[in-house]
Specification:
This protein is mainly alpha-helical. Helices cover about 80% and strands about 0% of the residues. The chain contains five helices and no strands. Helix 2 runs antiparallel to helix 5, helix 3 packs parallel to helix 5 and helix 4 runs antiparallel to helix 5.
């Protein structure tokens, strides 16, 4: 390494400029809050759905919990696209989050299909809730994708910090 130049890490999740934009925007903590809130809504909804599927009780609560989960999903998708625009200058499908965004559309499609089936009455409540559980399985996979990216971003930041400390020494 040349002592006259500052080190860099290639092929990281964020460029230094993107990291600075990510850290400066209000949309980063908004995404963090909505992700945690969505998970809580998801967990409660799974319990309500399970209760209905096992006992036949609590149909209204189970149905409306999925509606709530879907509305929170829509909110996180809209704010997430704003976040990507601020950080990566792309509304969606920024290279760093391309596959997460692709899978998010599957999640969104399944949740929307649930709302459509609820609106049209084209499925029984039990069938609708099975559809919701399929949407929830896709959501769980997608949430895992984003958690892996968060972990990768933190690892990149630790590596960058270590490299800068080594360079400064």
């Amino acid at each position: 390494m040349n002592d006259a130049t500052e080190p860099s890490i290639s092929a990281g999740l964020y460029t230094p400029q993107e990291r600075a934009r990510r850290d400066a925007t209000i949309w980063t903590p908004v995404q963090g809050f909505l992700a945690a809130f969505q998970f809580i809504v998801f967990a409660v909804s799974v319990c309500l759905i399970a209760r209905y599927m096992v006992t036949g009780e609590g149909e209204t609560a189970a149905v409306w919990s999925v509606v709530c989960k879907t509305l929170v999903l829509y909110a996180i998708m809209v704010t997430g696209s704003i976040w990507e625009k601020v950080v990566f200058d792309k509304w969606l499908f920024a290279p760093a989050f391309f596959w997460e965004d692709v899978f998010s559309f599957l999640v969104l499609g399944l949740h929307t299909a649930y709302l459509w089936s609820l609106y049209t009455g084209s499925m029984s409540t039990r069938e609708q809730l099975w559809l919701a559980l399929a949407a929830y399985a896709a959501y769980a996979i997608n949430a895992g994708q984003f958690l892996l990216k968060l972990r990768a971003a933190r690892a990149q930041e630790r590596a960058t910090l270590a490299m800068h400390q080594e360079w400064a020494a």
